[in-house]
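Final report, Chapter 2: Outcomes

The project's central promise was a pipeline that accepts a single protein chain and returns its three-dimensional structure in a standardized token representation, suitable for archiving and comparison. That pipeline is now operational. To close this chapter, we reproduce one record exactly as it appears in the project archive, with the input sequence first and the structure output second.
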Amino acid sequence: MRTHTGPEDWRAANRAMWDERVPIHLASDYYDQDGFRRDRDVIRDFEAAEVGDVTGKSLLHLQCHIGQDTLSWAHRGAARVVGLDFSEPAIEAARELAAEVGIGPDRATFLTADVYDAAQAVAASAAAPPAYDVVYTGLGALCWLPDIRRWAETAASLVAPGGFLYLAEFHPLTDVLDDESASRVAYDYFSRDAWVDESPGTYTDFSAPTVHNRRVEWQHTLGDVVSALAAAGLRLEFLHEHDMTMFQRFGSLARGDDGYFRLPADRPRVPLMYSLKATRPRP
């Protein structure tokens, strides 16, 4: 497993960046809080099909941000959902949203903790089960973590016997293609170095005035992610690669009628997202 390098202040910088962007995201069309209050479901169709029926199950959402995905799984029938994020403003927003859509603390709990400390945070909470039928991690989460093996060990420790971890992520190939056309390899797929950026704004509003702009990210190869989960004792059930993505990552992408972005039909396809399911065998 590769060792990643990066600045010592990565966690503090990323937390300050995310904390500042919570109110921007809450007010954005991208998250459409009013629409969520009405429909209460933002789970992507492929995720719903791959995770399956969650009725009566317990679900832990790691790096849950403002809680929309977490509460969507409750709306889809999960008996108990727990969302965890290191941003206190995000967790406060998630708790408020849960109250607004009528999902009480008996069904939804939100915890403030670093994802690497998730097991300790769950153990310390009287409201959170110790292990889960489903541990869920949504899009755009792993790039904020330098140690993918530690993440896998933490996530796996929270999967109940017979349960599974489900991960949907942007494909690491998208980190190496040129930004405009996505037609040539421009960056190192195996880079161990952190990517440090200080651009203002956020993905919901690139022109938003922001102060805490320093952010630190890492890329993780598909092999590293799968190998880390296997080493943590989980059994891979499937690994799916998808030719669509959620936003216009490259200038050449076009949005289809289904809302996803893809390369033009006359271009060879490449994977833009991936998803996987890994189970914890019963004793």
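Archive annotation: The helical segments are 10-26, 33-39, 45-51, 68-75, 88-100, 118-124, 148-157, 222-231.
This record, like all others produced under the grant, will remain available to the consortium after the project formally closes.
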